[in-house]
Amino acid sequence: MLSSAIARQILSFVGPGILSVFAFGFVLVWYFDRKRTYVWLFSLAIVLYSLGAASQIFRMPADAGFNAVLSALFYAGGAVALVEGLHRRSGRSLGMARAGLLVALIVAPVAYFFYGERNLLARVYVLNFGLGAILLYGILTLRELAGGRVIDRLAFWAVTIFALHFFPRTMLSAGGWGPTADGFGQSVFWVSLQIVLPVLAVALALILLALPLVDRMEELGRDSTTDPLTGLLNRRGFEDQAARLMAARHAWPLGLIVCDLDRFKAINDSYGHPVGDAVLRKLGRVLAGAARDRDVVARIGGEEFVVLLANCTAAGAVEFAERLRRTIAAADFPLPDGAARVTASFGVTSHRAGEPLARLIHRADELLYRAKAEGRNRARAG
Q1: What pLDDT is attached to residue 63?
Q2: Contact between residue 280 and residue 230 where contact means Cβ atoms under 8 Å apart
Q3: Which of 96, 156, 225, 329 has the fewest CB atoms within 10 Å, i.e. the most exposed one?
């Protein structure tokens, strides 16, 4: 049978070994999708934790004081890397100064309680309470995740639980060993650390690994429904959103506006497609800025845009289209000096009960063609 010492040694390898596999997984994810810089920070967090554990398990370096400080540096660096990764994913950053301060708030007291006032129990409390505090600070500054998507909520609570566990586990199991490192290595605290921490860390690592995968899947979904030029919905995205709105009786009545730039081909022919693209982007911003949150705005082809208005009467849709027409005619589009003003024509109609979306768009298109035939820069309703 294995001796208790060997069993404890094997147990010590379990957590760092499993997490090292996750670190490799994060590296692979980052290698194939390098724009997600937060992924390599997650990998760095795991690597630093594993290095901290390895330095304690193998007592490398052999000098006890240097070992205590170095392992504390690895652990604190891992916690800060995890927090920074979560911030990067949300478009934020701790910054070098704040990250360095958080690490120093753990490493400096650990060094003091070895080289100044030697106190092993104090070092254990400083390290564990410090790690929990760093993680809590980091996740609470991202508390909006708690009300986000399912994966965001999972990440928020996983990090929160992982952070909180440092406090009761340390208070319940710390102490009960002699003043030597050998006593510490045989303590309830150390054994519980090797069991509880890997379980929670693996659960957290699984959720963190899911973050870039879910982000990528949602990005692919957005790409398939988004117009890359204007950032508005494309035809597919519009059809999906319009179907939902048409099925929601609380959104009725619905008004549809079809907008088409006047003489857009002349802009492309005279100034080139890059200028034409800039004009389309500007028009997209004008439409998006005028619409309400519950409305659906899309570019469904060429220079043709649509706006589906929720809770909007026929008269309200006409008023909205006229307001858009005047706004576009007065807007400064990115055209050379001396270029004619950009205008647009509109077809405006209302949804009829049971009417398919294709039929609704067709009726609005016919009204748009009428507006074009009557001289452009006008709205026609029916």
Answers
A1: 92
A2: yes
A3: 96
